[in-house]
Amino acid sequence: KSVFILGCQGCPIGCETGGPPWIDEMTKLLTDAGMKVTGSALIDMICNKAIVGIRLGRVIDRIAEAEAILVGSCGVGVQAVGNMVGRLPVPAMDTICMGDYQGLFPSEERCAECGECVLAYTGGLCPVTLCAKSLVNGTCGGTGDDGTCEVSTEQRCGWQMIYERLEALGRLEDYKRYNAPKDFRKREISDANRRTIRWALEVAEQEVDSETETAKK
């Protein structure tokens, strides 16, 4: 019923999916849907938790009034917010492959760029990257009694961490939600655009050439 809107001015700006226009669009969309927008903020790089901590500290009272935070960033940014604020982070967009490039200030958070984000249902913790088996529907049968992973006993079970986060947020019902198998085609660069390691530059050049040809006509 109440949401705080947080936008990233890093990668989303380059992808033309963020910035002030996006904040205005989301504010209108949510307000028209009958939801209360408690406030909004733009942060240069949401993947930088130091910056996030400083900026959100200035609006913490407005965040406290919200039930969730709508985050306009890649999965790394959404998880960073979830790890710093006691509110449910909801991704506003699905992160797709950017040539294995994600976040200018990567920390412990990782995004698989699967194109089918489930962070809104896992408390802001990614099961694909936290689980050694990338399971999307709960823990396997090999989790240790102390909550450790059977694949790597030095790390905690990703789904155990998700359970604890959802419990803290009062959203354990989300743990029972069924997540469909991932469409791995969304995680790959299309065949036409992955002929070289410079595919991103080539795509940009193709778009410029196409626009030039259209202008000539």
From TrEMBL:
Pfam families found in the cross-reference section: DUF5981
Location of the Methylene-tetrahydrofolate reductase C-terminal-like domain: 91-184
PANTHER family per UniProt: 5,10-METHYLENETETRAHYDROFOLATE REDUCTASE, METHYLENE-TETRAHYDROFOLATE REDUCTASE C-TERMINAL DOMAIN-CONTAINING PROTEIN
Protein name as it appears in the record: Methylene-tetrahydrofolate reductase C-terminal-like domain-containing protein
Natural source organism: marine sediment metagenome
